[in-house]
Write a structure and sequence with these properties.
The chain is of the alpha/beta class. The chain has helices at 15-23, 58-74, 94-101, 114-125, 143-155, 160-163, 178-188, 210-219, 239-242, 269-272, 288-291, 314-330, 333-355, 385-394, 418-432, and strands at residues 46-47, 108-110, 134-138, 164-167, 192-198, 223-227, 246-249, 264-267, 359-361, 374-378, 397-398, 400-402, 406-409. The chain binds pyridoxal-5'-phosphate. Pyridoxal-5'-phosphate binds at residues 113-115, 142, 144-145, 198, 202, 227, 229-230, 250. The site of pyridoxal-5'-phosphate (PLP) has 12 residues, from helix 4 and helix 5.
């Protein structure tokens, strides 16, 4: 078969075409860097759930074993010995992580977990006053974010019924109108302390216009934070240039850091060395050169690391580092994004041709409003969506069900092949017959 042209992904529904697209995919070999689980039929799963838990890299085991061996050989001296000294191990990840989110190294740190980082950042960036006390979030926000925001409001003596602003889609529509979001920010303007939104909404897969949101919120005097759980490693980000105040993310989704892996945090340069910001302190935020003198005067590290509390989990960082190596080798994100756009076009085409209106994607169709996740509703009245999702699993397609009515699938450019997408759509078609 001839070289598929840029615009030609939708040439054929034949599996041979999928294979040809794989042959010409410049990222095809990245798949060999991952362990892919085996399905019930003995073949590799079609793994479309990397938006929930990314796959382990082949390199993860070695990176973790190196640290286990260093621990066995060195004991406590591992903290201070050699290039991999644990006291500064987290800094080995900073450059790669900063590149993924579009921040300077002094703006990015790998620490704690996502929800914990959001709380630590809200201590600094949610400073309600009687006049300006509201936090704006999206309807259907991930429960942990919702709880974190509500509890921060209460903690400061305010009442979520007065201080929490929730912006939703129009009735009967699945996703947000950007204009509504920006209008709500302007409407609550002088009362708005903080806008806390996702980069990519976990349920619908919608990408929000982070630069516009930040600009409009700043014009109203509000600060802006983003939860990047579903954005990092999925879409290109430019947090510094967009002027975002802060952001937090987890690393076990598109970043393949492993279950319960360490979180990430970004604070814009203009805030990192601001000594007036309220902050919860721990010994990992104080200067390393006096830390072990056990001084009890806090001397903030002049980077986002001053938000760090504890010495981080080295084994988790080691596994994550192996995945960041893969991103470094196969990136940058714009290159992964180019594959995502092609895979989305191919997926849309196959769904249109083979499945038609038996399912309806709720993820926006416009490319600038989507990452690699597509959330599908089963509209065929003869089938219940959750049973369809279970049948997919039974046929070796790993995907997930999100209450009340969505099947989420995510072709991840580093390890999902075009043939995987073809298999998914043909299996879905078979199940719906
Ligand atoms: C995955 C996810 C979380 C999970 O929070 P943890 O603190 O890592 O357990 C929180 N918020 C969003 C939006 C998520 O997608």
């Amino acid at each position: 078969m001839s070289m598929p042209a840029e615009e030609a992904v939708d040439s054929s529904t034949d599996v041979s075409w999928a294979r040809s697209l794989d042959e010409h995919d410049p990222l095809a070999d990245a798949r060999d860097q991952f362990h892919i689980p085996i399905g019930p039929d003995g073949a590799k799963q079609v793994y479309l759930v990397g938006n929930s838990l990314g796959l382990p890299t082949v390199g993860a085991k070695e990176r973790v074993e190196i640290e286990l061996d260093r621990w066995a050989a060195l004991g406590v001296a591992g903290h201070t010995t050699g290039d991999l000294a644990w006291v500064s191990y987290h800094q080995l990840l900073t450059g790669s992580m900063a590149a993924l989110v579009g921040g300077f190294p002094q703006e990015v740190v790998t620490m704690n977990s996502l929800t914990a980082n959001l709380h630590l950042q809200m201590i600094s960036f949610y400073r309600p006053t009687l006049g300006r006390h509201k936090i704006l979030i999206e309807a259907g926000a991930f429960p942990s974010d919702h709880f974190a925001v509500e509890s921060q409001i209460r903690q400061r003596g305010f009442d979520p019924t007065q201080s929490l602003v929730v912006v939703g889609p129009h009735p009967g529509e699945p996703t947000l109108h950007t204009d509504d979001l920006l209008a709500a920010i302007e409407q609550h303007g002088p009362e708005l302390a903080l806008v806390l939104l996702p980069g990519v909404q976990y349920y619908t897969g919608q990408v929000l216009p982070m630069a516009d949101i930040t600009r409009v919120a700043h014009a109203q005097g509000a600060l802006v934070g983003f939860d990047l759980a579903h954005a990092v490693g999925n879409i290109p980000l430019a947090l510094h240039d967009w002027d975002v105040d802060f952001a937090a993310w987890c690393t076990y989704k598109y970043l393949n850091g492993g279950p319960g892996g360490v979180g990430g945090a970004f604070v814009h340069q203009r805030h990192v060395a601001d000594p007036t910001l309220p902050k919860l302190h721990g010994w990992w935020g104080t200067r390393a050169d006096t830390r072990f003198e056990m001084a009890t005067t806090f001397e903030a590290i002049p980077t986002v690391e001053s938000w760090a509390l504890s010495n981080p989990p080295i084994l988790c960082l080691a596994a994550l580092r192996a995945s960041l190596d893969v991103f470094d080798a196969w990136g940058p994100m714009t290159r992964l994004r180019a594959k995502t756009e092609r895979q989305l076009a191919y997926l849309d085409f196959l769904l249109d041709e083979l499945v038609g209106d038996r399912v309806r994607p709720i993820t926006p169709r416009a490319l600038h409003q989507r990452g690699c996740q597509v959330s599908l509703r089963v509209t065929d009245q003869r089938h219940d969506g959750h049973s369809v999702q279970r049948a997919l699993e039974h046929h070796g397609v790993a995907c997930d069900w999100r209450h009340p009515d969505v099947i989420r699938i995510a072709p991840v450019p580093l390890y999902t092949s075009y043939e995987d997408i073809h298999r998914f759509v043909t299996i879905l078609d078979t199940i719906l017959r």
